[in-house]
Design brief:
By secondary structure, the protein is α/β, with parallel strands linked by helices. The chain folds into two domains: 102 residues, Urease, subunit C, domain 1; 312 residues, Metal-dependent hydrolases (TIM Barrel). The protein has eleven helices and 18 strands. The strands form four sheets. It has an eight-stranded mixed beta sheet with strand order 3-2-1-4-15-16-17-18. A five-stranded parallel beta sheet has the order 8-9-12-13-14. The protein has a three-stranded parallel beta sheet with strand order 5-6-7. Strand 12, helix 7 and strand 13 form a beta-alpha-beta unit. Helix 7 packs parallel to helix 9. Bound molecules: zinc ion. The site of zinc ion has 6 residues, from loops. Zinc ion binds next to loops.
């Protein structure tokens, strides 16, 4: 078993620097100036040590679109972004709506070994919204699927949604909803507002999200099932969640926000660059501010990337023909630091909460999002809080290059990521 010494780290960014000895897969000892033998020493110069990040919403595109991303390239991006676990969405080709596909993705994740890859199972067969997929079979598979989502599509039929909540409840599963009432977003290209109107783009109105969120909170409350709302994008959704969570019956509803919805607005439409096309769309400044506040006060539980790589031909085209989605794994931390830490909305304990602890709890992961303490699993990320770096979309590990943050300077850099005591990324390079 190898021993790794992290020298001069600040757990949660608090107190004087200490040394952390990682022995095998666990944190063995934490203390000032440890005098111990180690196989490798990482000099951290006071960098912030946090539990490794957990992403509840990643698109790895395998199987089917290996020209956009693979489990291997996506795992590299995750490790470089500070992640130790990711949830791979089911909208692959073929769809991950059965045990064979989820076990394939799970096994590929294990073979690559850079991050724990947990497949998300589809709620309905083929993401068609008509018939429940074999949720129990996916749960009992080697992949032990716990989160189910038709992401990319909304489970819009209320009866199917009700049955999914009831059925997953029987084995402690979670239904993750892409909230979009499809009858309100036919042909939608951008947030329904002044910018879309000026450019003649069909609008995606905020109530198409909010109506589904309200409906599904009520269904979760009624069934006792567990609901997770994907990529919350409007201030109205934050209001609904705040109301719901204030009720006695709360506890079974959680929600995520993406880094891009914490920073970018539909003013980006002016560029007419499809790199800014995403679903749900970039919204208004008032929405961005409401989402930051909701994340700070716990109304929105966590940050999830909705990392969505696309091949060049699906983005370098007309706006209407472009696929929605943007890269997220390697820029998530920088955007959270810029939008939440620098303005004083979250401290580093708060970052640990929204990027690691809460997502691990929602997903039911026992070995992720754990305290930085002796005896705990060494799933960790080391962050230089003062470093500034410039995003270069083409240099990110993903096969797709569709980062809307290309050229942007971001604060907070991942120095190292450890998965069960092993360095998976260090100084911007993947460690195999
Ligand atoms: Zn989605």
């Amino acid at each position: 078993m190898s021993r790794l010494l992290l020298k001069d780290v600040r757990p949660y960014g608090e107190g004087d620097p200490v040394d952390v000895l990682v022995d095998g897969e666990v944190i063995a000892e934490i203390g000032a100036n440890l005098e111990v033998d180690a196989d490798e020493i990482v000099h951290a110069d006071g960098a912030v040590l946090l539990p490794g990040f957990v992403d509840l919403h990643t698109h790895l595109r395998e199987p089917g679109r290996e020209d956009a991303e693979t489990v291997e390239t996506g795992s590299s991006a995750a490790a470089l972004g500070g992640y130790t676990a990711v949830f791979a969405m089911a909208n692959t080709d073929p769809v991950a709506d059965n045990a064979v596909i989820v076990e394939h993705v799970w096994r590929r994740g294990r073979e690559v070994g850079l991050v724990d890859v947990h497949p998300v199972g589809a709620v309905t067969v083929g993401l068609k919204g008509e018939k429940l997929a074999e949720l129990g079979t996916m749960r009992r598979s080697a992949a032990e699927v716990r989160i189910f989502s038709d992401d990319g599509h909304c489970v819009h039929d209320p009866l199917i949604m009700r049955r999914a909540l009831e059925y997953t409840k029987s084995f402690g599963g979670v239904v993750a909803q892409h909230a979009e009432e499809p009858r309100l977003t036919v042909g939608a290209q951008a947030h329904e507002g002044a910018n879309a109107a000026r450019l003649g783009l069909a609008g995606w109105p905020a109530p198409a999200e909010e109506a589904i969120v309200a409906r599904d909170c009520l269904l979760a409350g009624h069934t006792g099932g567990t609901l997770h709302i994907c990529h919350v994008s409007t201030s109205g959704t934050a209001d609904i969640l705040r109301w719901w969570k204030s009720r006695e019956t709360a506890g079974s509803v959680s929600a995520e926000v993406t880094p891009h919805h914490l920073l970018l607005t539909d003013d980006r439409l002016e560029t007419y660059d499809p790199v800014n096309k995403v679903n749900p769309p970039l919204r208004t400044d008032a929405d961005v501010m409401a989402l930051r506040e909701a994340l700070a006060d716990g109304t929105v539980d966590c940050v999830a990337t909705d990392h969505a790589p696309h091949a060049a031909q699906d983005k370098d085209c007309e706006w209407a023909a472009a696929k929605p989605g943007m890269l997220g794994l390697q820029t998530a931390l920088g955007i959270v630091v810029r939008t939440m830490v620098r303005p004083g909305l979250l401290d580093w304990r708060g970052v640990a909460r929204v990027m690691s602890e809460r997502p691990a709890e929602i997903a039911g992961l026992a070995d992720q999002g754990r305290p930085v303490a002796a005896g705990e699993p060494a799933n960790l990320v080391l962050v230089d809080p003062d470093a500034e770096w410039t995003v270069r979309g083409a240099e990110l590990a993903s096969l797709g290059e569709n980062s809307p943050f290309d050229g942007m300077q971001l604060p907070g850099r991942v120095v190292a990521t450890l998965l069960r005591g092993r360095l998976t990324a260090h100084e911007g390079k993947v460690r195999r």
